[in-house]
Amino acid sequence: MSDNRLEIDIALGRRQFTLSVAANWPLDGCTAVFGPSGSGKTTLLRTIAGFERPDRGRICYRDTTWCDTTAGTWVAPHRRGIGVVFQDAALFEHLSVAGNLEFASKRAPPGDARYSTDDVIAACDITELLQHQPATLSGGERQRVALARMLLSQPQLILLDEPLSALDRDRRRALIRVLRRLPRDFGIPTILVSHDIDEVVELADYTLPLREGRTDGFGKTTDVLNASGHDVGFTLVDAAVRSIDPDYSVATVQALGTTFTLPIDRDTPPIGQHRLRIRDRDVAIALSAPTALSIRNHVPCEVVSISPGSSPALVRVALLAENQGFGASITRAAVSDLQLQIGQSVVALVKSASIDG
Amino acid sequence: MRWPSIIAVWRTLETTTSANRTRSIHATLPGCSSIGFCVIRRSLIVLAAAFVTAGTALADTIRVGVASNFLGPATDIASAFETATGHTVLLSAGSTGKLYGQIVAGAPYDVFLAADTARPKALIDKGFAVSGSQRTYAIGTLVLWSARGDVPVTLSRLRAGSYRHLAIAQPTLAPYGRAAIETLSALALTDRTADRLVFGESISQAMSFVATGNAELGFVAKAQVVALSGQAPGHYWQVPAELHRPIEQAGVIVRSDKPAAAEFFEYLRSPVAHDILTRYGYRSP
Amino acid sequence: MSGPDISALLLTGWLALVTTLVLLIVGTPLAWWLARTSSRWRPAIEAMVALPLVLPPTVLGFYLLLLFNPTAPIGAAWLWLSGDTLTFSFAGLVVASCMYSLPFMVQPLTSAFTALSRGPVEAAASLRATPLDTFFSVVVPLSKRGFLTAAVLTFAHTLGEFGVVLMVGGNLPERTRVVSIAIYEHVETLAYTEAHTLSLILLLTSFVVLTVVYASNRSQAVRVG
């Protein structure tokens, strides 16, 4: 999948706003363009889609140049094979839900279908809605219809513009479940624009952080978030689900050079590669591996740094295991009791961790 | 201000969509693009008219409604009259039918110089003009005119039919149009020209069709062609008077309470007026 | 009613219909351009479109007389192409009416297109619809009401056209003698009965047509609100 490269080097000035992005990244799974509002992420997405023309620069996807201001190359949006889901869904109000879907499937390139209409309708859970008019749908339903419509045009690149921002908590969860399966089920690289760190963590494999119209690094979501100095209070680590024990509702997961036993709370994760979200406050530190403790997940690791925490009483201890960083939030008193030193070998006790997408 | 006169002027303007402009136009072309535009224009005219009519209370100023074809000579005659008597003459040009309608509706004209004899007679019959005052003041001359200077206009050209359009005034509306139809009939050209005739709402419009080159030939008033001389090239052929009934232009005194009106009406018969008439291509009766 | 008056009525209806159709074709792209463009020429073009609203028809009629005459380039080209002059012909009336009624087509359409959010248009492009396809399958149905208003106003306005027709038409029965001219002639010759009949027909037609527009606007507003 590494030939799914997106090469962007553009500059674009709008009123009180400049976007200047240079990036060359492999599109594999889901990539988030992550930043606060006003950072230019929607503009970047719109430029990739072809709804905005950069003042100068070029955009290449795979081996096609979509835009090159020097050579005068311009590929119109409708020829780029992109699928876009807009913040407000942008359904065609004059057509029924079925009409919206048909609009897309009628214009899809023939003989290129990697999945059927029924697959998409089932995946987006909109079977019940087909005869409805868009005006009668709720926000979540609109987004699911928009998603299905986009998929039915058989795009080669999916662009999602804050698709969850208009939704309440429950509908968000429902849509996230659908979105998380997208790259895997349909095999289409996806770019997600979001200002919501949870959304990024749950959906994105890669992240391009954007701040005031400029990028500061591109990489795996875990690395970017961990390295970005975002005090997010958790760490993402790569993990592999090895087995599921339905009797105890627990999964055996390989991560940080250790085998974790984790409870399964909602969906049963499939066997295979996942990410583990470990919250700093769920990690305790012991100088040696304790016995007779309810906390079952013990990670041998090394202290990398000790920095002020989220309150005066707390510090954040950065730890490293198997070249993977993570953190523990403990009291300053505990640090001095244990006489923790940088470079010291300790055992991290991970009380709980959740398995992400 | 005298409100009755303002109302009268307003009603005058109501009877037609076009405004009459004193001494300034040769053809009144009706039509307003929007109601708003018309109302504004009318209001301005009513205001202006109100000032003017406020002055008429002091006498020595008369208003003359004049058929547009006669505006040129009427202007010259009026200024000679003004010099001779010290009175002031305000001329309003319009089509005979329109002026007639305005007078019936109460327009404050003192003298009406029509382009025909029927409308002055009708005014007297209906009691809108001073009985016994009707008199033919000029006889119009019909010419066949082309705006191009390089091809002479002759009767044989009319007979040959080497033209696409022949402009005349609407015969139901204008005496010159009626005379043109009579002429074609006398020349036995009615059928030959039937599908080439185009109609102007007035003799002035028929003339503008020819002047702008949209019609190659037209039957127009000699007075208009004379007024144009020096401004545009062109040729005309004067239609012999026996080919149509005379185009008698009659006038009436509308209001008897103004001595100046009768004076002006009489002045139309003076040698000065006769010279002006002739110069403009009219004949004296 | 007399034969000439009936034919004037029919001619007027036909003229209004043809004008509306021609303006739909010409006015729609112009309105779309006006609604979308950020060109610095836009105000000038908008002003040109609106000119017939403020100018007396005599101005337009005067310039058309100059443009249409067979010695002017446009008049000559038309004569060469069609074998007929533009003045004193139905085709000339259509051209004149199109200019005269242009704002009544373009302005409602422009505001309908301006009111249209960019979302559906961009969504259509992202679903591989070409711009033309997008226009017909998304923009037109979503601007239905604007099209209805524009078409009806254009039709009604052309029905009542007078000044320009008077100047370039030549009052030819069955070719250029429209109702407003016939009414004018009746009024001038004091044939008030005939004038009343035609005026009333014109008035009622315009009233009904305008009522249709306002009724459809209202029902739309109620449904949305």
Give a brief description.
The complex is a heterotrimer of chains A (357), B (285) and C (225). By secondary structure, chain B is of the alpha/beta class.
Percent range for helical residues of chain B? 40-55%
Global Rg of chain B: 19 Å
* Rg over alpha carbons of chain C: 20 Å
Count of DSSP H/I helices of chain C:
11
Describe the structure in your own words.
The complex is a heterotrimer of chains A (357), B (285) and C (225). Chain A has 357 residues and is an alpha+beta fold. Chain A contains 8 helices and 22 strands. Chain A has helices at 41-49, 97-107, 117-124, 139-152, 169-186, 197-203, 221-227, 332-338, and strands at residues 5-14, 17-26, 30-34, 56-61, 64-68, 73-74, 82-85, 157-161, 190-194, 206-211, 214-215, 219-220, 234-245, 250-255, 258-263, 272-279, 283-286, 297-308, 314-321, 324-331, 345-350, 354-356. In chain A, the strands form 4 sheets. In chain A, strands 3, 7, 8, 9, 10, 11 and 12 form a 7-stranded mixed beta sheet that branches. The longest helix of chain A has 18 residues, at 169-186. Chain A starts with a strand and ends with a strand. In chain A, 41% of the residues are buried. Helices cover 43% and strands 18% of the residues of chain B. Chain B has a 5-stranded mixed beta sheet, with helices on both faces. A 5-stranded mixed beta sheet of chain B has the order 7-6-8-5-9. In chain B, strand 1 (61-67), helix 3 and strand 2 form a beta-alpha-beta unit. Chain B is globular. Residues 1-44 and 46-58 of chain B have low confidence and may be disordered. Chain C has 225 residues and is mainly α. Chain C has 11 helices and no strands. Chain C has helices at 3-36, 42-54, 57-68, 73-82, 90-115, 118-126, 131-142, 144-159, 163-169, 179-188, 192-224. The longest helix of chain C has 34 residues, at 3-36. Chains in contact: A-C, B-C. The A-C interface holds A 49-51, 76-79, 81-84, 86, 88, 90-94, 103-104, 107-109, 146, 149-150, 153, 155, 159 and C 117-120, 122-131, 133-134, 137-138, 141-142, 144.
